[in-house]
Design a protein that fits this description.
about 70 residues; mainly alpha; 1 helix; about 30% helix; elongated
């Protein structure tokens, strides 16, 4: 089986702006990971017999030194 890695960066503009709670950010992370996993597993091409997702990691990127 061949392996591929995807690097994806998203920006979430929360209703509360930068004051959004950690719970809201963690909820976003969980939903993003679930959505990415489902999209990868359901990718359908004639040349692909089956696919599985080995790992999905979603972490918040903290701006440093700004």
């Amino acid at each position: 089986m061949r392996r591929f890695m995807v690097h994806l960066v998203t920006e979430g503009d929360f209703e509360d702006g930068d004051e959004a709670s950690d719970a809201a950010a963690q909820n976003y992370q969980a939903h993003l990971a679930e959505t990415v996993r489902e999209a990868a597993q359901n990718l359908s091409l004639r040349t692909i017999k089956s696919a599985r997702v080995d790992d999905v990691v979603v972490e918040e990127m903290k701006a440093e030194g700004l």
